[in-house]
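call fold(seq) -> tokens
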Amino acid sequence: MKTRFLSLLVIFLSLLFMAASPLWAEDDDKHHEQKPFAMAEFGQLPILHDGRIKPLDTFARTQLIRFSDKDHIEHMPAITWLATTLFDPGNASELKIFRINNENLRHLMGLEERKKPLYAFVEITEGLEKTFPTVEKLMSETPQNISSDQKDLLTLHENALEYTQILRSLSLLLPLNVTVPEKWAKELPTLSTRSVNFLTLKKIDAGLQDEIKQIIKRKGQNPAKYTPNEQMTAVLGWQIKMIADAAEGNNLFRVIPDPWDERNTDKKNTGQKSGEWISPWELVQSGKGSPRTSEFLDLWTALGANWSQLDDKAWHDNSKKLLALGNHSTRLEIFYNKLQPFFTSTIFFALSFLLALIALTFNQTKYIWFLAGGVLAIALGIQGLGLVARVLVLERPPVGTLYESILFVGFVAPFFAALMELRMKNMLGFLSAGFMGIGVGLLALSMAGEGDTMKVLTAVLNTQFWLATHVLCITIGYGWCLVTSVLSHIMLLGQATGKLDRPTLKNLTHAQGTLALTALLFTATGTILGGIWADQSWGRFWGWDPKENGAMLIVLWLIWIIHGKIAGQFSKLAVTMGMSFLSVIVGTAWIGVNLLGIGLHSYGFIEGLFWGLGVFTVGEMILIGGLAWIIQRKEQKGTIPDAA
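ret:
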């Protein structure tokens, strides 16, 4: 039923939008590209979306990424695109923002082929209506029976619905090209061509509808029998009703604090923990108005007029007033968006890795050590700054989702490797830190394609104590495991190439044992804490959930390798191979089990992650096995140093 409802609503709103487009006043001789507006304050305006207050800048980026897979259109930033969509919906509907990569879907929608498969809303409207019968049939199908082409079709319909809501968000405030009969114009003494909008006409709507009923009662429903003035009255009434019907249920653009929510009226409230917010259309349709909400509507109306008149100064002033009225600071998240800390830190990790590699290759560690360390410190500083920003914005520990755990491990693993380097001073720690920073950073970037990565957690997961203990502990354990694995890879590679001398190999072997024990401590403690949390949340300590099994797998693997080493059952080479393969064990327990689609920790099947993890596992088996074979051959010839 949901699919059918969405499809009907998309088509209905699309047709209404196309019919209503001529109602909005346009200035064909003015183009905003000639005079870019200052968007700093406008981008900071708060909006309630996906369960949290965020700046319009984040909202714009999220929506544009959803539609086009990018956070900009050619030379237009996301926030400028959003302003255009809100204040100039007629022209905005002609912007090519819908990316349709599926060739079969483009053919089904009747769209022309392009080098870049981007299409405007006006171009896909006919296709939405055309594909409605197909979408209607999909409502009776189970998700397992829906093909990838059909899923893309459903996604396009849902995106069109979301976009239509944005287009109509401020339609009640925008100037309209309508003719008001003289009788009703007298009741609006401030009426002018610039001030006619839905809110203005709403004041006369009740009387207007009564007059239309009287006209129909006297002359029937045939407009040909009406006088010119009566026809004008009927048309105006129809236009008002059409705008109101098209905006029914428009609750996406929640930029006004609910005046009847006590959390929004508490004077002690700093604005950081706001209550419910509502959209302009919700405000009008629910009748929740107050003097304060009138201020919001007046300022949003003024912004619309400023945009239409290209009045940059007034736009700037009204944006500042609206920002002050909202009483919610979003500057930190704006800074976070501009800095892009995790992308930036990945670049510095790569530079640090390159410097360490050059130093080891040309045996110039003495001169490059401080430079590589400084670059690595910058990378860790930026990464840490990004994590702190997320903590302050979300007001919880930075490990609530799979993506956040990747970011956290991307900080702690290089940090631990840097600490190891401070002790050994042989550049291998910097090399390991840079390599892990690059690898985990690229993984995080691949997981950030969904747009807004600051998700609000469900009630059972949003528990500050357990997020700060169990989740932090287990992710720190992941970090130690990765450091152990990378160091073991270096040991295998160094022995296979003959680049490691006996003292260095001895130091690395000792460090390997220490790292493995530390990893075991954190992963085992984190697993036990997870059981206690599960007992409090779900009433059982252990339920053989895939995520629980994955955590135990890491612990058992480490115990097996460590005890095998202590008992003399494993050779030094076997221990190093086992510690190297720890990367696959962690990847399986950390990410792989989430792809099973079962259990309380499932994030759903992601095809890209599945194949990526599979290729990584096979690659590790080939690499570790190949290096071990080379080392064994050298041991047989007596050309490899012993760490003992």
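The CA atoms of residues 188 and 475 lie 64 Å apart.
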